[in-house]
C-alpha cells in the first residue's frame, strides 16, 4: 500500500496488529482515497499543511457496542463514526452495517463524502459510520437494540447542525427511524433533521428511497451522450441502489442483460424484465433462480460484452486483475470505491469512460440534503419538485466535471476530485486557522 499524502495521525496509521504486507479491504479503500486526494492536491498545487488537513479526519470515534442476543448472550461489536471534514457545513454520511467494515474503510468513505458534497454544491462536510456486524444474521429486535446502543455511543458527535447520518450498505429506513427516536428521546423532543432517509411518516422526503439510483440514471444518460435505446447494461449488485438503477435505465430504453447479488448472477442476452426480476428477488431473497435467465459466475458479469457496466455493491471489485478484461466502454459507479487506482489507469488507457462514484452516486446525498432542508423548515416538497432539484444538481455537477476534464485533459474521476478538493481547500483558506 502506498500512501502518498502526509498521513501520520493515529486515525490513519496502520495498527500494529496488521502486518505491513497484509492489505485489508479497508486499507485498500483508504489507499485509493488517499491516492485520489494526492493527485488532486498535486494538480491544485496545495501546500503540505493543507494536504495533511485534507488527508486526515477531523474526528474519529471507535466504540465497543454491547449487544444482548435473543438467547441472553452478550456480544460486543466494534462501531465507528468518522467526520472527515466539517469546513463547509455539518458532517454528512451514511451508516454501514457490514461484517468487514473497519476504521480504515469508514475513513475512506467519509473522505469520499467530503468531496461528493463539495462537488455537487451542497453545504456539508463528509462523514461515515459503520458497525462491524452482519445484519442478516440478527433478528429485528437484536438489530434495533444494536442500532440504539450504537447511536447512544456516538451521541456526542451527531445532531442536525453537527453530523447527520443516513442509510448505507446494510441499513435502511427502519434503522433511520430508530436513530431518530433514540436521539429524540435523549433530547426530549422530536428532532427529524438528525438523520435522513427516514420513513415518510417521520419526515422523510419523497424521492429519497430511489434517489441514488435516479442519480445513477441521470449520470449514465449524460455520459452516454446518445439515445439509450438498445444500450446493453450489466449491473453488479442488485440491492438498494443497483435494482432501481437497473429499473430506471431499463425504463429509459436500455437493455439490462445481467445482474448479480449475494445469491449469484443471472444473464439473459435478449434483456431481463427488470420489474419481474425485482419481484423474484424480493420474494426469494436473491436473483438466483430467476426462471427467464441463465445463471452465470459473479466475476464473469464484470467482463461481459456490454455497453455499460454499473458496479453498485462494495469497494474494490474492478481491480488490476480483471480490469484488462472489462469490455464495457462506460462504467458508472453506483457503489463507493468499486474501482482501484490501478484498475482506473488500465480502464483509462483502454479508452473506457468511468463516471466516478462521487459524481454518479451523489443522488442519495443530494436528496438527503433536500430532506434535511424540508425538516429544518418543517415543510415538504412534492415528488416533482424533489426530482427537479435532484436533476439540476446532478446535471450541473456532471457538466462541470465534463468541461474541466476536457479543458485540462483529466479523466472524469480526476476532474471530479479536483473540483471537490479545491472547494474544500478554498473553505479552509477563507476560514483561516483558529487560534
Ligand atoms: N450512504 C450514501 C452515500 O454514500 C448516502 C449518504 C447520505 O445521504 O448522507 O452517498
Description:
By secondary structure, this protein is an alpha/beta fold. Among the domains are: 57-189, Rossmann fold; 211-360, NAD(P)-binding Rossmann-like Domain (Rossmann fold, 3-Layer(aba) Sandwich), CATH 3.40.50. Helix content is 44%, strand content 16%. The chain has 14 helices and twelve strands. The strands form two sheets. The chain has a seven-stranded mixed β-sheet, with helices on both faces. It has a five-stranded mixed β-sheet with strand order 1-2-4-3-5. Strand 6 (232-236), helix 7 (240-251) and strand 7 (255-261) form a beta-alpha-beta unit. It is globular and about 55 Å long. The two termini are 35 Å apart. The model is unreliable at 6-13 (pLDDT under 50). Glutamic acid (GLU) binds at residues 92-94, 166, 168, 196, 336, 361, 364-365, 368. Substrate binds at residues 92, 116, 368.
Amino acid at each position: 500500500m502506498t500512501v502518498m499524502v502526509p498521513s501520520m495521525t493515529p486515525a490513519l496509521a496502520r495498527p500494529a496488529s496488521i502486518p505491513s504486507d497484509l492489505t485489508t479491504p479497508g486499507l485498500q479503500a483508504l489507499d485509493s482515497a488517499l491516492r485520489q486526494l494526492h493527485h488532486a492536491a498535486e494538480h491544485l498545487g496545495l501546500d503540505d499543511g493543507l494536504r495533511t488537513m485534507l488527508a486526515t479526519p477531523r474526528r474519529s470515534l471507535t466504540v465497543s457496542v454491547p449487544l444482548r442476543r435473543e438467547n441472553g448472550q452478550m456480544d460486543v461489536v466494534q462501531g465507528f463514526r468518522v467526520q472527515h471534514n466539517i469546513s463547509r457545513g455539518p458532517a454528512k454520511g451514511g451508516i454501514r452495517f457490514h461484517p468487514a467494515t473497519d476504521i480504515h474503510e469508514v475513513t475512506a468513505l467519509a473522505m469520499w463524502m467530503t468531496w461528493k458534497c463539495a462537488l455537487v454544491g451542497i453545504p456539508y462536510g463528509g462523514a461515515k459510520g459503520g458497525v462491524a456486524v452482519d445484519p442478516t444474521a440478527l433478528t429485528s429486535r437484536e438489530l434495533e437494540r444494536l442500532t440504539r446502543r450504537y447511536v447512544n455511543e456516538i451521541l456526542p458527535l451527531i445532531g442536525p447542525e453537527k453530523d447527520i447520518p443516513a442509510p448505507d450498505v446494510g441499513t435502511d429506513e427502519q434503522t433511520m427511524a430508530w436513530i431518530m427516536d433514540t436521539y429524540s428521546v435523549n433530547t426530549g423532543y422530536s428532532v427529524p433533521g438528525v438523520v435522513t432517509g427516514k420513513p415518510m411518516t417521520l419526515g422523510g422526503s419523497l424521492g429519497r428511497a430511489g434517489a441514488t439510483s435516479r442519480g445513477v440514471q441521470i449520470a449514465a444518460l449524460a455520459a452516454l451522450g446518445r439515445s439509450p435505446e438498445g444500450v446493453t447494461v450489466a449491473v453488479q449488485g442488485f440491492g438498494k441502489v443497483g435494482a432501481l438503477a437497473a429499473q430506471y435505465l431499463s425504463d429509459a430504453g436500455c437493455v439490462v442483460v445481467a445482474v448479480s447479488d449475494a445469491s449469484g448472477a443471472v444473464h439473459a442476452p435478449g434483456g431481463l424484465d427488470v420489474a419481474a426480476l425485482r419481484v423474484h428477488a424480493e420474494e426469494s431473497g436473491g436473483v438466483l433462480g430467476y426462471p427467464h435467465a441463465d445463471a452465470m459466475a459473479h466475476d464473469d458479469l464484470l467482463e461481459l460484452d456490454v455497453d455499460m457496466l454499473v458496479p453498485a455493491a462494495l469497494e474494490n471489485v474492478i481491480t488490476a486483475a480483471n480490469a484488462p478484461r472489462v469490455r464495457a466502454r462506460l462504467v458508472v459507479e453506483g457503489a463507493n470505491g468499486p474501482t482501484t487506482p490501478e484498475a482506473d489507469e488500465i480502464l483509462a488507457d483502454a479508452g473506457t469512460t468511468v463516471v466516478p462514484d462521487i459524481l454518479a452516486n451523489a443522488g442519495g446525498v443530494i436528496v438527503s440534503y433536500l430532506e434535511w432542508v424540508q425538516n429544518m423548515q418543517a415543510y415538504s416538497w412534492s415528488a416533482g419538485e424533489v426530482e427537479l432539484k435532484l436533476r439540476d444538481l446532478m446535471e450541473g455537477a456532471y457538466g462541470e466535471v465534463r468541461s474541466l476534464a476536457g479543458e485540462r485533459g483529466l479523466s472524469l474521476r480526476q476532474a471530479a476530485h479536483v473540483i471537490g478538493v479545491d472547494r474544500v481547500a478554498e473553505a479552509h483558506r477563507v476560514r483561516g486557522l483558529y487560534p
